[in-house]
Design brief:
5-stranded mixed sheet, Rossmann fold, 7 strands, 7 helices
Length: 230
Amino acid sequence: MVKELEDLFEYKDTTQKAIALESERKIAQSKVNVEDLPDLSQPGKYRVRRRQVTFSIDSPRQTAKGFTGDYKLNVEVHSPIGLNEPAPLAIIAHGFGAKSSDYDELAKHLASYGYIVAMPEHDGSNTNYQDAFLRGEVGVDISPVEFYSRPRDITHLLNKLERDPDWQPQINWSEVGIIGHSLGGTTALLAAGAALNWDRIQSVCQQDDFVFNVSIFLQCRAKKFTPRKL
């Protein structure tokens, strides 16, 4: 356990240092005068409208009620009031055991600056699913298929919005981005076209090895997938 903790902290420190160095390099190359930028800690100029929309998805998925051939994709949307042009779209993918509404404040803040923010509810790894697992209503903490279903939720959401006669003209489709927290970060990378690191999964996820890092423990569920780009 001591060795596992040492490796975990070393990996964390190395990652943080690499991110800090890259950030400093980018700042040094930037010609932007930070003092001229608005104070982004304060709300923007737009009032915000919050809506709950639901799309019917004809695709298999794990949910808190079991595995289903189709499902409802519930999405919380925050949009700026009074914006007279198509808005950039930001998608927020929640973490494992979380829910979309956990990120309401971030969504509201972004919308106040002119973004449309869509937050899908990932039914196979949200708060409801976690509660169902703890009650014994589902048999696995996270299904391997969730690593496929989460980015597919994003794809389905984008397709539905783009084909919807109400939403399509409201969005600037050349400016679409995604934010993810924890497992939502993995979701964002997979949705953008990244592949799971199968070599690392196979090397880390040895059946007899003790894993102190809960994130790695959950990611090891993906071992049952055939290595391929999701």
